[in-house]
Design brief:
This protein is an alpha/beta fold. The protein has one domain: Alpha-Beta Barrel (TIM Barrel), CATH 3.20.20. The protein is built from 10 helices and 8 strands. The chain has an 8-stranded parallel beta barrel with strand order 1-2-3-4-5-6-7-8, surrounded by 5 helices. It is globular. Bound molecules: SN-glycerol-3-phosphate. The site of SN-glycerol-3-phosphate has 14 residues, from strand 8 and helix 9.
């Protein structure tokens, strides 16, 4: 499916919040790569990041299937879109939701709005792909934030997810994440049947995030 994609999840890393989120997004927007680069940012930072890095794809980290009205504290997709989001993560290991939540969100967002549903394993990836999100991202929770890339620690979960998702729907892209740090990790992810990666600390904790990003896309 199309070009490869590198999604950087800013989480609540201090290096990627507030003004630092804007700086990180500017660094991302300067990277030239034959791939889509996406920043997945805090809802607080969405509008500022979109303004600071025009042209960069910006996603939310979570959305709720709510509309306008009495929904205190929930994240309305329509507002996210108005503020410039072109997609969202959902069901991240650090922000799990029910499968109904994912289904209702997919029903609600307009066509062309990317939804990347995260899964802990092949089974969850298979179940989520039946809902036809844009992407399913497999991330073994125990490897998240670690030093060993899922592509080395558990290549079978990556290739198995790619196969399982393809069996359900050819139209759903597959990403993998957890411990991804280098261009070699990214090319291995592609070789294992994915369209790209979802990562965080490899960029947000890097001494030089620009160099880390450049390396991540170097083998594409
Ligand atoms: O959403 C990406 C993530 O959970 C993986 O985190 O720090 O292992 O790249 P990290």
């Amino acid at each position: 499916m199309g070009s490869s994609i590198v999604v950087v999840n800013f989480k609540t890393y201090e290096t990627a919040q507030g003004v630092s989120a804007e700086d990180m997004a500017k660094i991302m927007s300067r990277i030239e790569a034959p791939a889509r680069l996406v920043a997945s940012v805090s809802a607080f930072d969405l509008a500022a990041v979109v303004q600071a890095a025009p042209g960069l794809e910006v996603w939310c980290q979570h959305l709720d299937p709510v509309g306008f009205g009495s929904n205190t504290g929930w994240l309305n997709p329509a507002t996210a879109i108005e503020r410039g989001a072109s997609g969202t993560l959902i069901n991240h290991a650090e922000h799990k939701v029910s499968i109904e939540h994912v289904a209702m969100l997919l029903d609600q967002v307009p066509e062309g709005f990317d939804v990347c549903a995260c899964a802990a394993d092949i089974e969850e990836a298979r179940a989520l792909s039946a809902l036809c999100p844009t992407f399913v991202a497999v991330e073994p929770p125990e490897l998240i934030g670690g030093d060993v890339s899922v592509t080395s620690a558990d290549p079978a979960v990556v290739s198995g997810t790619a196969e399982a998702v393809r069996d359900v729907s050819e139209g759903v892209g597959v990403l993998c994440g957890a411990g991804v740090k280098t261009g070699l990790d990214v090319s291995k992810a592609i070789d294992l049947g994915t369209s790209g990666v979802l990562l965080a600390s490899g960029v947000t904790m890097a001494e030089d995030p620009g160099a880390a990003l450049q390396d991540l896309v170097s083998q594409l």
